[in-house]
Every structure is written in C-alpha cells, then in structure tokens.
Amino acid sequence: MPRVFSGIQPTGDPHIGNYFGAMKNYVRLGEEYGKNSIYCVVDLHAPTNPGAYDPNLLAGRTFEMAVANMAVGLDPAKVIFFAQSHVPEHTELAWLFTVMTPVGELERMTQYKDKAQKLESVPAGLLMYPVLMAADILLYKADTVPVGEDQTQHIELTREIARRFNHTFGETFPEPRAVYARDALRIPGVDGQGKMSKSKGETSTLGILEPFDSIWQKLRVAPTDPARVRRSDPGDPDKCLIGDYHKLFSDLPTIETVYVGCRTAGIGCVDCKKMLMEGVRRELTPVQERAAELKADPDRVRDALATGAREAREIAVPVMEEAREKAGFLKL
Ligand code: TYM
Question: Domains along the chain?
C-alpha cells in the first residue's frame, strides 16, 4: 500500500491555488489510503521566510491552517493530521540529511534563488528548507507526495537525498514521487502576474475563507484577454485567467456558455465574472460554513492535532532510530 505524505505552510487562509493544487488531493488520497496518508502543517518551515514570520501570529496561523484543511474535508479520524513542530524527529532527521547534502545542490533550487535575491541577509534556514522537506517525507518512508508543480524540484532533491543515504548507509528510504492535481498544476494569480502565491501578497490570492465581497472586488478588476478591448470584440477564454478559473469552479454547461459567449462577443467580461462568482460561492460556501463551526470549537481542532502527533510519532520514532543506527550513532 502506498504511503502518502504532504505538508502545507501555515499561511492562515490558504488560497485557491493551495486548495485545487493540493488540499483537495489530500482529501481524495485520504479517502483511499486512510491512516497511510499523512498530512502536516509545516510550522517549522514558516520562519524561513523572514518577511512573513511573526512569532505572535504563528500559533494562530497554524491553528487556522488546521481548520481550513478540516473544513475542506480532511478527516483527522481517517488520516494522520498534525503540526510539524509537535514531532521533533523532523528536525533530527533533517540534520542527518544536512551533513550529507552539498551546499551547491541547495543553491541551485529555484525557489531558494528567487527568495534569497530579495534579501540582504539570507538565513541559513532558507537554504536548508528543502532538506527539512525531504526529512518530512522520508521520516514516514512515504513514496507518494501530492503537491503543486512548484514543488517538483524539491521532490527531485528528496529522491537524491534518499538515494545518497541508501548508497552510503544501506537501503533505508524509498524514492518518493510527486503526484499532481490534473488541471490545477499551477493556478494563476488574480493579479495576472504569474502563479498565485501568498508571497506576492493579497493582490495575487483568492482565499478559500475570504469573504465573498472581497473575492468579488478582486475578480471585478482582474485582467482578462488583453486583445478584448471593447465589449463588442471577441475574446479568447484560453488566454484569460477568468477562463482558467471557470474550469475550476463552474459546471460544464456554464463553461460552454462562457467559452462560446466570449469567442462570439455574446457576453461581456463582467457577465463572465458574475457567472464565475456563482461557482465560487457554490464551491466555497460549505467550506466557509464548516470553518466557522470548527473555529467555534477550538478544542476539537487541538485534540485532533494532539492525536495526530501521537499517531505520527508511532511511525516516526522507529524510522528515526533506524536512521540513527545506520548512520553509526551509539545505541544504548
Ligand atoms: P505551500 O505551503 O507553499 O503550498 C501548499 C501546497 O499548495 C501548492 N500550491 C499550488 N498549487 C497550484 N497552483 C498554485 N498557484 C499553488 N500555490 C501553492 C504547493 O505546490 C503545495 O503542494 N514546501 C511546501 C511545504 C512542504 C511540503 C513538505 C510539501 C514542506 N514539507 C513535504 C510536501 C511534502 C510548500 O511551501 O507548500
């Protein structure tokens, strides 16, 4: 039976890129693989982003990310769901990997290069980020990792780290592979500036728990096919991010209506955006309602995370012992 692992950073309100690109896949794989699917709010990764790290907000954001995943349908009774900092073996295994990973390999990571070039002083943790990520996955000997396309290079590095460990100390870890959500590899930002990403700020993202009037304000001004200047100009929905979003949120008849309507100038961009908004409400209303219920019952969320951390450690502790022993540490 495959073992699934994935992690998500505690950014508070996840956006629709996280939702369609990853979180819905967690739920689907969770239904299939039960306690062999392990999901983690990776709070130890969060402080590597110095601009966004605030110790006064971290715990609240971790809680909210747990709420969001449960609201989307992740059932902690069926899967293993916990916060990374509650399982200390993650950082211990990361250290074993750190000592055997060449700095050059880490400096080649594109996410590192993008983030580091914006900083005057680069924290070592930013460079080590993908090593901790490899430890997250391999600590559970997971072989299947649901992620968006932006994590591909990190998963490749994880495979390399597993290979290197196995080659040096004997067969220990599987070489995990990434699995992607079809049609949601790389959801574009609502500002039209490439991938939707929290690090680009609120203008890029549509939060799954964001109030609908705020979502509408962003959609209303979102760029559409630049060739469609006047209402009477036909447009190309394949060159329009609203067209992309329809494929995520709308039913087939609506998609057909807006695609034909756009190409024939039968509908305007505002009509098209209003139809999209209906799909957004239909998809996200139940999620927002469940999130409100969970926030009103914080002990339920805390208890779920506490149980999840215990279940995670049942797997992690023996794997860590095996790794420690193979790497030559004194066993008492
Ligand atoms: P994070 O927290 O940035 O994002 C969580 C998941 O959402 C996906 N994603 C997207 N998918 C499609 N379109 C988008 N615009 C988009 N934006 C984000 C991400 O690919 C990710 O799957 N490094 C990871 C967290 C992590 C992890 C792990 C993941 C830490 N340890 C171990 C897997 C396994 C990250 O920053 O994800």
Answer: 4-186+298-326 (3.40.50.620), 211-291 (1.10.240.10)
